[in-house]
Amino acid sequence: MAVRRVVPTIRSEAVRESRDFYGLLGLEEVMNHGWIMTLASPSSPAAQLSVMTEDRTAPVAPDMSIEVDDVDAAYAVMRESGAEIVHPLRDEEWGVRRFFVRDPGGRVVNVLGHR
C-alpha cells in the first residue's frame, strides 16, 4: 500500500473567506461540495488543504485525509491492529471509497482511495 497524498482539514464556517485567504499564498480551489472545499498548489498539485464545515456523510469531521492506492488493504491493516474505526469502509457518491480511524493522539483520519 502506498500513500498518494496527505491533506490537513481545517474546520471552519468561513469557507469562502478561507479560499480567498489561502489564495493569497497561491492555493487554488480544485474541489467544492459546499460543505468541503479543497485547495491545491498549481505548481505542486499534491500540496493540498481542505476546509470543511462538517462531514455530511459521517458522524464526525476528520482532522486530515490520507489517500492510499489500496483503501481496502489499509482498512484491513487498521482493523487487524485494533485501531478504533470511527466510520466504516464505504463508497461515497462523489467517487471515493473511505473509512475513518482514530490515531493514538485522538485525531480522526479519513483514509480514502479514488474509485
From TrEMBL:
Superkingdom is Bacteria
Pfam families noted in UniProt: Glyoxalase
All copies of the VOC domain together span 1-114
Q: Which PROSITE patterns match?
A: VOC (PS51819)
- Please give the Gene3D superfamilies that the UniProt record associates with this protein: 2,3-Dihydroxybiphenyl 1,2-Dioxygenase, domain 1 (3.10.180.10)
Q: Does the keyword Zinc apply?
A: no
SUPFAM superfamilies per the UniProt record, alphabetical? Glyoxalase/Bleomycin resistance protein/Dihydroxybiphenyl dioxygenase
Q: Which UniProt keywords apply?
A: Lyase
Q: Which GO terms describe its molecular function?
A: lyase activity
Q: What protein name applies here?
A: Lactoylglutathione lyase
**The keyword Lyase appears for this protein:** yes
